[in-house]
Specification:
two-stranded antiparallel ribbon, alpha/beta, 411 residues, 14% strand
Amino acid sequence: MTDADDDFSKQKLDRPKTYRKYICGDEALKIPASQPFTLSRPMCRGRLNISNKYSMQQVCDDIYRIWDYILTEKCQIGSKLRPRFSAVLVVPDTLDNREVKELLSVVLRDLHFHSAVVIQECIAATFGNGFSSGCIVNMGAQVISGMCVEEGVAISSTRFLLPYGGDDITRCLLWVQQRKKTWPLADTDPLRDPLDFQTLEKLKETHCLLLEGEQHTTVDIKCRMAGEPTRVYTVVLSSVNVPPMGLFYPSLLPLEQFSPLPRPWYHIDYEDTTEDSFSEAGRRLETNEAGAANGSVNGNSINNDSDPYDFEDKEKKDMEEVSSGLAQAIVKSILSLGRVDIQKKLFASIQLVGGVGLTKGLVDAVEDRVLHAIPVNEAVDTVEVLSNRMAPMNIMWKGGAVSISRCLSYR
């Protein structure tokens, strides 16, 4: 716990018990489990977190509340001002067309923006770094996605998803310290206590790195419980380079302890972008609903004899196996393009974006492991990760601004 969190805890103890209707962002993660709040996560592993207990409408309502809070409290753009503005919606590459349509409905119908432009994260990241082509690897908290972009056009056949990310590295850090018996707090549970997870997250961001050899560091950890004085522990963090290695060796990450990827409640071909495809998807969805006795996508009970979350083979094949590491996924993605000149170009223009991209030593590790993962019969001898022009987690937002400025210039 940092000093800022310690002060926050003291303030909370002195406040009267008055509860707001909902709380968003980091403040929500600091609420003790004993308080009468329900923690909702509308996104899970890069998808809308839709299930029998968390309906599509509830997910969209929660996303609306988060965006409305940010616009009103952080940007000072109230609901009365929004019809005067247009919005840029930067959507993750992990979403299907139907999910994008739902998010766009939130922007236009609920937030009341005048108009909106939709752009994929991979294209926005390319523009944000000032390039038109590259192999974009978005390394987020719960999922790693990648896609190749050629002259401003995303090539869907190169898309890959790895169902792990920065959060799994954070949990792996705790697992390593517990195995090494260097962690003093036996009751630490990042799955149940958001404060425990935040503490581990800060340690990961500050001390985890990708370097050869044994890496150790010493830190002071503050622990404060309600009604008790603050305790300070001096901890020797061992093998801090092991958790980030889970990017290349997913077996290091205890994935079996955590929730799997959410299953889609519909099926749409990634290539279908026309209005007819939405109509056809609606008919398929209605068919699923009709086959579910007393069931609906709004979260009501579902008959066990029918499953509205049917997979098709294409969606199964579209997901990389968990055993596949980052280097193998990048190589497979680029080599799926037939032309050798394009392959060489993309291997020399890999871009790492997202919060995990801040890991020390990651660039050198990716270059080395991708180069060694390329088959010897391929005519590629150069791998380069391009430098980001700003913080990797903000590249997409800059790219969204760049794309809309180009649209305005064209008009």
